[in-house]
Design a protein that fits this description.
2 copies of one chain form a homodimer. Chain A has one domain. In chain A, 83% of the residues lie in helices and 1% in strands. Chain A has 24 helices and 2 strands. Chain A has a two-stranded antiparallel ribbon. In chain A, a hairpin with a 5-residue loop joins strand 1 (358-361) and strand 2. In chain A, helix 5 (190-234) runs antiparallel to helix 22 (692-728). The longest helix of chain A is centred in the N-terminal third of the chain and has 47 residues, at 49-95. Chain A is globular and about 70 Å long. The two termini of chain A are 45 Å apart. In chain A, 68% of the residues are buried. Residues 748-753 of chain A have low confidence and may be disordered. At the A-B interface, helix 5, helix 12, helix 13, helix 14 and helix 16 of A face helix 5, helix 12, helix 13, helix 14 and helix 16 of B.
Amino acid sequence: MDFENADVLIVSASIVGILFSYWQYSIIAKTTISPEPDTETSSLVALNRKVTANLYEVYIAISEGANTFLNAEYRICGVFVTGFSILLFVLISSATSIEDGMFTTISFITGALTSMLAGYIGMKVAVFSNARTTKAAALNASNESAQYTAAFNMAFRAGGCMGFCLCSIGLLVLWILLKIFSHYFETDDYDLMMDCISGYGLGGSCIAMFGRVGGGIYTKAADVGADLVGKCDLGIPEDDPRNPATIADNVGDNVGDVAGMSSDLFGSFAESTCAALVIAASAQDMRDAGWSALLFPVTISAAGIIICMLSSFVATHIHPVKSKAEVEPALKLQLILTSILTIFASVFLAFWLLPAEFTLNGVAQSSFTATPGNVAICVCAGCFGGLLIGLVTEYYTSHSYAPVREVAMSCKAGGAATNIIYGLALGYLSAIIPVIILAVIIFTSFTLCDTYGVGLAAIGMLSTLATGLTIDGYGPVCDNAGGIAEMSEMEEEVRDCTDALDAAGNTTAAIGKGFAIGSAALVSLALYGAFVVRLGIDTGVNVLEPLTFSFLLLGAMLPYWFSAMTMKSVGEAAGAMVTEVKEQFANDSRLMAGTAPKDVVAAGRDKCIKISTEASLREMVAPSALVMLAPLIAGTFFGVYAVFGLLTGGLVSGVQLAISMSNTGGAWDNAKKYIEQKLSDDPELKKGKGTDVHKAAVVGDTVGDPLKDTSGPALNILMKLMAILSLVFADFFWSINDGRGLLNVAVAVSRRV
Amino acid sequence: MDFENADVLIVSASIVGILFSYWQYSIIAKTTISPEPDTETSSLVALNRKVTANLYEVYIAISEGANTFLNAEYRICGVFVTGFSILLFVLISSATSIEDGMFTTISFITGALTSMLAGYIGMKVAVFSNARTTKAAALNASNESAQYTAAFNMAFRAGGCMGFCLCSIGLLVLWILLKIFSHYFETDDYDLMMDCISGYGLGGSCIAMFGRVGGGIYTKAADVGADLVGKCDLGIPEDDPRNPATIADNVGDNVGDVAGMSSDLFGSFAESTCAALVIAASAQDMRDAGWSALLFPVTISAAGIIICMLSSFVATHIHPVKSKAEVEPALKLQLILTSILTIFASVFLAFWLLPAEFTLNGVAQSSFTATPGNVAICVCAGCFGGLLIGLVTEYYTSHSYAPVREVAMSCKAGGAATNIIYGLALGYLSAIIPVIILAVIIFTSFTLCDTYGVGLAAIGMLSTLATGLTIDGYGPVCDNAGGIAEMSEMEEEVRDCTDALDAAGNTTAAIGKGFAIGSAALVSLALYGAFVVRLGIDTGVNVLEPLTFSFLLLGAMLPYWFSAMTMKSVGEAAGAMVTEVKEQFANDSRLMAGTAPKDVVAAGRDKCIKISTEASLREMVAPSALVMLAPLIAGTFFGVYAVFGLLTGGLVSGVQLAISMSNTGGAWDNAKKYIEQKLSDDPELKKGKGTDVHKAAVVGDTVGDPLKDTSGPALNILMKLMAILSLVFADFFWSINDGRGLLNVAVAVSRRV
């Protein structure tokens, strides 16, 4: 087997990443969680016998709940992957050859399994680290600066352990797949090979869809249910150990925010790489330029791992976090640092690996000439655009800035109603600048390198993925750590520390969502372009065809339909949760008094976990089916011109909706926190919890939950999944009446083309 | 002057319509409103001296408030029209010829003035009739069946008076313009003439934008403000005479719901006709076919007036309304009847006026052959599609059906938060079927007659406009009549009758909004097509051009930006209203006791009117400027390929958002009514006003107000206005670097085209 430059870089980056991840894990594992107090710490009030026992109990309960859900979800995924693999194999084989069908199916299964592994590792690491973060905060409760350093580092390492592991495994598996496939294909057939490789992205995306929707419904059903019943009806605080729905809420953070998001971002990585590879390999020039040039997009991701690793030392070693105020800047610095380093890396790699000039296929122009300089600009545009989108998202969702404060103030003027009006308006407004940035990135990269450029911009935006995942993983770990502190009945100081860490996590989570949406838009466009290139249509996509325009409208409607389904699912499951908890309290007065025996409490918690698990698994099927069936039905019956409309519409409408939903939800959450933490100078806002103003803010927060954590993020996958499905099934669609579908209604098209 | 078949039909229909309208007016005017009781009725308890004086006073206050606002608004419109006329004249003249510039400007001014007249007449008739409807209900309070007949007929005639007057005047003015222009153009230059005529649509649309946004902010600032302060803080019922904001609320119904909507629908009529005329006249075949064939689209509207008039006798004479239950069916029957009659009319007119076969220009195909049969199908598709969209809208917004009841039930499960989640989800879901219907209409008409077909479908959907306006006008008149009854301190029976009439009006208003959105989508697409035909681009619009795709994203963002602006404006103005009312009550305890002298009450009311007026006029500028500047900037600096993206994006995203906003708002309103009227079997929902469930429903209703009456309906105009602006400025855009704009960045385009 030949090892070329690109191979060396990719393999070494993957191995280094995995080793780094293991190192992080070994540091976390030094802190132990056991039912008995550690001899050395038993003297500490913060970790006396009772608290330690509580901590262990909660830790085990969350861990078991998360395992149960993920096992159940993955059983469904297993059935789906088996069924879909057969379908894929039959359809692709019938349209092309048995070999192509087989290779595509292998890629699909590999992608799906890798994505499941990614979700599983993410969940395991998060569950493993959350109680340890609580313990770190408790052990150092006497010294605030040491406490922040210890707890922050623990949560940050947990994020890092997860982020680097996922990125490295994703990269390594893809590379192994490429390397194996390359033995079965001639260099001149690398275009066919890459078509098969795109199955890898499809597999990742399908699992991500289940993870995001299922996990999203799980976490928000529990969260909304716990909030409604706890705060509004029974008047017990958030994460109170008496509320049986809180364990489900904590489990939800791990399976929704961590496992779901891990699969989602793994999907983006896999798909953007596949899109770029398909387009690159479709050009003779690129195939001739050699393996390393072809694998250039993958090397960017490899370089990203090294860059992110180097940057992470700044947070843990060079400039450790010592106080509340340092948390958010430390996390933001990570993103800025990795983005700057990526410029150098991309320029270097482009000039090192790519020929001085090469011709590629595209959609805006059927063929065009690119240079390493152009290519590097595309990567940097994506990378910096992502950073800017992230910072704008922060502006609109952090309570340090005017927009969220205005929303908080509106709770005072007209209560819940004006809070909702202002929050919705904020979400709409927050889409303006990100969309402009996306438009500029697309214009730049599309003009310079056509679809290939858009794919590279997506890869550029995701080059800092390991850091992004670190930060994204950090948030739920801190959130959980806080919940665990509350439920273990630890002292105020512990909770204060985890709350501050969590607040910073909320803001950076919003930044992460901005990245996820932005990259999803770019990935979808790149895949869409690859789909058109693949079909060999060089007249572009005319939207003013009857069929295309009709499906453009239908495509734009899909994100609304999808969101409505997921929102209602959360509403219904939360309703069931409220009924269950109310019933438990009504039937056993010891629960409210906090004197119920352990087994009664545990049985109550298990019932809540069961409601979330069953509801989410039941409700995730319909929205996922909608997204997968839409392009398949359009392509099979109405042909590729209908699919063009569907993809355009879904992408255009999905981006706006996803951004506004995520930011609206984030803003409401932080407006509530702004009031709770009494950060305002306004006398009425300063009164904190329990006031009418606070109640109005809670309504917004509750409405925002399904928007920001269920519907919004899942829209990313909607866009990407529809596009990659179309790409993988391109040959099949084309085999039906030359892409005109079984119904063959593309009248006008048939006359012109 | 030759009078051809089409001329005869158009002129006679217009005159018949105006006479019919005058006849309706004369019947309404028989009921008089004066400060002294009529001798014949002074014996009635319902209209004793005190009530009569109250009635008169409220009538005058509303009338003056509405006049003040409309005068102020029209002063701003006057300045705008003057300024924009100069700009238009200069830009069009510079791009084409002084003559073209002059004719376009004349058309623009005529359209603007006609639209202002339409709004003015609508407002005048509504204000004239509302107190008379209250009086009709009061005069017959002793006999329920006679009461319903009298009050319904009064409100229905008011709607008819307005609807027929507007349609006839709009038609007649357009015809006169066409006839005059035809003297200055050769038959072969009719394409240029129609280009100039499109200024008529632009004028109508610009005024409609101001009317919808200004009126929408006015009415909802007052409504939301009155609701918030009345229901939530001071605990006084809706429309209570003590609440100084209620008069402003009533004025708002007239200037927003009536004047705004009249201008909006007049704009749709003018624009759809212009789009069809531009496309028809661009083909040599059609110009050769003669004046009547060319004017075929206008004759459909003319026939519509006659059809609507005939149908209206069914409601007033053949089958008069005698009870609560008969109101809604009577109004729906009108729509169904006119739609059926339109089929016959359109088939007849198509075969009578059009040649057996003719060739037109298009965008999906550069030229195609059409037949009268095809043309009739397009008209019918629009007409029936509109009816279906209306009925689906009714299903989602009426509390007779499951969706609204589910939203009402959700108030019980989790309070305001779940109400909002379910309401938003309902709005998203309610877009599915209308969008599918629109897609089918577009596919059918686009395939059969290309852009001309889409224009005809829009005209078909608007052929029942007189009936639509009748029903749309009916609603606010009943709403006002109820408010007046409450404020004049009339008996329960009077209010019960007007409430029942109003509830039916709410549902049919939702139907009307469905029509308005559907037709706006078709009109925009037709105008967009006409724009492309006009530019002579026969390669279609490739969305996968960098510039076009970037602007596609930006265009899709505009409706969100626009909505955010208008929603925040309502929120702020409502906040100011709340502050003012609270202050008034705090400063003068006699206001709450109801013992304040008349002049104090009147001064308080005037202050509220002033707040609404000033806020709406101030806040309407920015959103209107956004919509007008976007296509102008895009076209001037980035060229027509950017405008293509902008129009596609705005249309696609606007339709979804407009439908979901309108229906969400309507559903919340009716969910609240469902609880208030105790229509549910559920014990908790049955308790009516004052419960926590009802409070949760009020939050939804308040959030829905700006969505359904400010942002949602204004989005229709956003779509249409951007498209007609582009059409009118087509030559100007093309004159800059052959349509590539001042910045000339359309790199890829320039290489291919």
